[in-house]
Amino acid sequence: MTRSLFPTTILVGLLSGCSDNGPATAPVDGVVTFAGKPVPFAMVVFLPQNAPDGQPGYAQTDADGKFSNVSTAGKSTNGVVVGTHFVTVTEAWPPDKEIPVDEMGMQKTPPRGVWGQKYRDSSNPALKVEVVGGKNNHFGFDLSK
């Protein structure tokens, strides 16, 4: 009895054409400062403007205000979608600190940073960058301007 490989061949061909690697990404890193001093443990969010399926990229600054290892949609990607991005910077808890809770058991928000609201506002962000494919994109965000 001979079996045909035809159905298997068609299935493999169809599945190989269904893989979606998503939009092109490029690595980003940088530093966030306020009045010449690092902004520690802030959340930097890259909001793609010209990628229909582009997910926002998230990175947290370290104690020296530096960020890298951007994650997108909960996955560590070390990059964001190539193209124009609005950027917001919001407060975050240090990664090794237990997040405090209030008397009702709800997580408390981090203390308010010294920078202006315009850097937190995702509806009208003050920061705009261009992420270029094929290179490491380094950004310095001075939140005292």
Structural class: mainly beta
The neighbouring-strand order within the major sheet is 8-7-5-4-10-11
Number of domains: 1
CATH architecture: Sandwich
Secondary structure: helix percent: under 10%
The largest pleated sheet is described as: 6 strands, antiparallel
CATH domain fold name: Immunoglobulin-like
Large-scale geometry:
globular
- pLDDT below 50 for ≥5 consecutive residues: which ranges? 1-19
Provide the gyration radius in Å: 21 Å
Mean pLDDT: 84
Number of helices: 1
Q: Approximately how much beta-strand content do the residues carry?
A: 25-35%
- What is the multimeric organization of the chains shown? single chain
**Got a strand count?**
12
User: Helix and strand string, N-terminal first?
Assistant: HEEEEEEEEEEEE
CATH superfamily: Immunoglobulins
Termini separation comes to 78 Å
